[in-house]
């Protein structure tokens, strides 16, 4: 409703609604005192008086008396960020040139075998056709980089692309010499972070916590950058686990690092937006952003700087990959929902690090671990569960919650949640425990990830955890030992949807299926910082060149690297065409040739879990047909969801006009279909879609359609059912009508039923998921 009002009101009222909604509804806790906070202002760039040579001069002259400007934005976004009191914000908000204002928010990171698992092979296919991503530039928004790692060597790379206009910024522990022909740029953005009252200024020297420079004190950025584009590194491993040759998806692509996230304090909107501005100006081709909302609120696009900044990038031909978030398996948990973003969930690969819990009654329960220290060597130890006390902090093994008299010399069961997994092990170790069993709760189900624990430890699923707890409660002398099995390849089934991977439906605009696809995101080996140990804990004195991490943060750079390969092989493809190639060639089957399963439940997964499917680069290079989307198409989509011209301008920079006849948002030329029938419908209901496909395969081609109906009682008709392409005709449109009897339609557990539509010419298979659901009318 609010969006519809915005679409019909003139500028002053439109702004007032935007400002009131965001400032007073989303942030009701903002006090009326004079405490300053950072705010981002969207300004109509065309309002700049000609007397000012630049927007910076205008902003400082017009607003500097009231505030200290932090960032000036002039590429993907027009405006500035500043440190202000609430009263100052109210005053500036009434300036006639101000289109919108929103408070700076903190976001969180969504924390090598995976290239082969994606279908990449040496000297063949996409690696060969793209020359391993040579000369494509990937910008990574993260925690920085540890430049000395072998993954960032420039050995035998050619000169830096002439179009590159970026910089190698210097700072604490980082000089111009740390950049090379591989790592061609590095910047850091700290003004928003430092202005935040909760963060405070960064220490000007390295205090083992953070570097005021592009250097990575956290490890996350080094990991994601090397996943996307790391060079070949032989004899790679993490303390003996996952041995082999580490390499990124696009080993010869160039890297530019934009440090927007800071250890222990997250990533701020104002800094992220400044990085988008810089990266597009610098000349990147791909942006990888493994960052998402930290407050659980899905903001409208005009109030979401990641959506705004990414639109500015995509509208200039820059592909942007983003992580879907780690709040799965809950439904509607997916983040980064803008339709111009490529949103990536996480799946497993066919490699695992098994461990076993061997109980005193000789039962063996399976788990995982990356523990690499002294083994227990089969010795049995007493087993204790602190949760028997009934105190929640005890069962979670929170800091100072364990009584050394109760756990010393024993293996302790700790419940997952509320604190980092590795931190629980440290609590057990400090209390004198000899080992830990980390048990999932119901919310995590059977989903497991490995950790490089500081003591012998094994993670187990909810069922195994319950079995162990029952054994303790029914045994007079419960004992156990832990056995670590190392690295195992050829695991089946794989891929499996990671339990933590965020799920659909799309909470903002369910007409757009999110996530778009999934990629490897569980137990991924990649480069690591030398500032902290593999657990990231300050007390971890170990140092390792590589680390193994899990999260949609790890899945996102796989798609970023894949986009670089496709951009190198097809330099004329748009970001939408690249995404389409990935989505329509994605696989929904695992290595048993069965539908992928959900790790959380063990049941079959759905497009709400995996989008179009799992990234398959063996086919993405030659998709046959692509669904392209223009900037004007995105504007029409925004008109269709009720945004008015002035609100759209907040996102697009340029003034927008909506068609007289309101566009239908479901007609955005997306490679998926979501048919939403009203709950109130008590009979036959139908939804019609219009799509256009562009032939990027052989000029003279004929495609025929086939449909997998979502459920009995649902019919899908496609007209025409045959598409003929020639040298003269490269683009064709078709109409899809989905019809169902809502009286007999039985929705699945997710509230939807699923099918697919596929075009094929006998060689290419161009598949799109179909979702049918019922919703309450807005």
From TrEMBL:
> Where is the major localization of this protein?
secreted
Location within or outside the cell: Secreted, Extracellular space, Apoplast
CC annotations in GO: apoplast
Q: Where does the Inhibitor I9 domain start and stop, copy by copy? A: 43-110
Listed GO MF terms? serine-type endopeptidase activity
Bias class Basic and acidic residues marks the residues at 209-221
Q: Where is this region: Disordered?
A: 199-223
Keywords for the protein's UniProt record, in alphabetical order: Apoplast, Glycoprotein, Hydrolase, Protease, Secreted, Serine protease, Signal
Please report a single Pfam family linked to this protein: PA
Domain PA stretches: 381-468
User: What CDD domains does the database record attribute to this sequence?
Assistant: PA_subtilisin_like, Peptidases_S8_3
Among InterPro entries, the record links this protein to:
PA_dom_sf, PA_domain, Peptidase_S8/S53_dom, Peptidase_S8/S53_dom_sf, Peptidase_S8_Ser-AS, Peptidase_S8_subtilisin-rel, Peptidases_S8_3, S8pro/Inhibitor_I9
Set out the biological process GO terms recorded for this chain's protein: proteolysis; response to symbiotic bacterium; response to symbiotic fungus
The keyword Protein biosynthesis is assigned to this record: no
Query: Where does the Subtilisin-like protease fibronectin type-III domain lie?
Result: 667-772
Residues forming the catalytic site: 142, 220, 553
- According to the lineage, what is the superkingdom? Eukaryota
Query: What PROSITE patterns has UniProt attached to this entry?
Result: SUBTILASE (PS51892), SUBTILASE_SER (PS00138)
What is this protein's function?
Required for arbuscular mycorrhiza (AM) development during AM symbiosis with AM fungi (e.g. Glomeromycota intraradices).
Question: Entry's PANTHER family?
Answer: PROPROTEIN CONVERTASE SUBTILISIN/KEXIN (PTHR10795)
Q: What is this protein called?
A: Subtilisin-like protease SBT1.6
């Amino acid at each position: 409703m609010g969006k519809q009002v915005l679409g019909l009101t003139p500028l002053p009222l439109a702004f007032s609604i935007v400002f009131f909604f965001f400032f007073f509804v989303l942030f009701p806790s903002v006090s009326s005192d004079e405490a300053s906070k950072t705010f981002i202002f969207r300004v109509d760039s065309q309002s700049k008086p000609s007397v000012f040579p630049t927007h910076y001069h205008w902003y400082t002259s017009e607003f500097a008396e009231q505030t200290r400007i932090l960032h000036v934005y002039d590429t993907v976004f027009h405006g500035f960020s500043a440190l202000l009191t609430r009263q100052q914000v109210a005053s500036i908000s009434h300036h006639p040139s101000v289109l919108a204002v929103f408070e700076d928010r903190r976001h969180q990171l969504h924390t090598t075998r995976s290239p082969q698992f994606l279908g990449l092979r040496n000297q063949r296919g996409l690696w060969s056709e793209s020359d391993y991503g040579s000369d494509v530039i990937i910008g990574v928004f993260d925690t920085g980089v540890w430049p000395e790692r072998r993954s960032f060597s420039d050995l035998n790379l050619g000169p830096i692309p002439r179009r590159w206009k970026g910089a190698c910024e210097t700072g604490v522990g980082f000089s111009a010499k740390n950049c090379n022909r591989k790592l061609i740029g590095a910047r850091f953005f700290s003004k928003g972070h430092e202005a935040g009252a909760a963060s405070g200024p960064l220490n000007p020297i390295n205090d083992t916590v953070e570097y005021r420079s592009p250097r990575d004190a956290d490890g996350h950025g080094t990991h994601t950058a090397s996943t996307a584009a790391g060079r070949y590194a032989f004899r790679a491993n993490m303390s003996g686990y996952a041995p082999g040759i580490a390499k990124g998806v696009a080993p010869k692509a160039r890297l530019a690092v934009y440090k927007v996230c800071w250890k222990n304090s997250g990533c701020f909107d104002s800094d992220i937006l400044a990085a988008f501005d810089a990266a597009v100006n610098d000349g990147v081709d791909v942006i990888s952003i493994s960052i998402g909302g930290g407050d659980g609120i899905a903001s409208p696009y005009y109030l979401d700087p990641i959506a705004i900044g990414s639109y500015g990038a995509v509208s200039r031909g820059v592909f942007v990959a983003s992580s879907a978030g780690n709040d799965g398996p809950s439904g509607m948990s997916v983040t980064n929902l803008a339709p111009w973003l490529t949103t990536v969930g996480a799946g497993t690969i066919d490699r695992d690090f098994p461990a076993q819990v061997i109980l005193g009654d000789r039962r063996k329960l399976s788990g995982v671990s990356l523990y690499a220290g002294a083994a227990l060597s089969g010795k049995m130890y007493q087993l204790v569960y602190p949760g028997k006390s009934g105190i929640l902090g005890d069962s979670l093994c929170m800091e100072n919650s364990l009584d050394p008299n109760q756990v010393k010399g024993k293996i302790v069961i700790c419940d997952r949640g509320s604190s980092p997994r590795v931190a629980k092990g440290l609590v057990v170790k400090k209390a004198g425990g000899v080992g830990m069993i980390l048990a999932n709760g119901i919310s995590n189900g059977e989903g497991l990830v490995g950790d490089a624990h500081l003591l012998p430890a094994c993670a187990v699923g909810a069922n195994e955890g319950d079995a162990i707890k029952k054994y303790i409660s029914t045994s007079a002398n419960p004992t156990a030992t832990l056995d670590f099995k190392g690295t195992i390849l050829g695991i089946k089934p794989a891929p499996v949807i990671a339990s933590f991977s965020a799920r659909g439906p799309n909470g903002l605009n369910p007409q757009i299926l999110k996530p778009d696809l999934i990629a490897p995101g569980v137990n991924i080996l990649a480069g690591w910082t030398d500032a902290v140990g593999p657990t990231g804990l300050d007390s971890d004195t170990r140092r390792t060149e590589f680390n193994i991490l899990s999260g949609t943060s790890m899945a996102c750079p796989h798609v970023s690297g894949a986009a670089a390969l496709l951009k190198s092989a097809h330099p004329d493809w748009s970001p939408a065409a690249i995404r389409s190639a990935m989505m329509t060639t994605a696989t929904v089957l695992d290595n048993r040739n069965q539908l992928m399963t959900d790790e959380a439940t063990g049941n079959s997964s759905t497009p709400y879990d995996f989008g179009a499917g799992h990234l398959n680069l063996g086919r993405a290079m030659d998709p046959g047909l692509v669904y392209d989307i223009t900037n004007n198409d995105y504007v029409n989509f925004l008109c269709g969801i009720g945004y008015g011209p002035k609100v759209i301008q907040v996102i697009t920079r340029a003034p927008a006009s909506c068609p007289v006849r309101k566009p239908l948002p479901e007609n955005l030329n997306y490679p998926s279909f979501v048919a939403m029938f009203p709950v109130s419908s008590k009979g036959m209901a139908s939804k019609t879609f219009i799509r256009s496909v562009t032939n990027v395969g052989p000029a003279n081609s004929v495609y025929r359609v086939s449909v997998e109906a979502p459920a009995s009682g649902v019919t899908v008709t496609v007209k025409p059912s045959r598409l003929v392409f020639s040298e003269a005709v490269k683009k064709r449109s078709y109409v899809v009508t989905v019809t169902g009897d809502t009286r007999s339609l039985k929705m699945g557990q997710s509230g939807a039923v699923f099918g697919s539509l596929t075009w094929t010419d006998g060689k290419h298979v161009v598949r799109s998921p179909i979702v049918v659901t019922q919703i309450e009318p807005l």
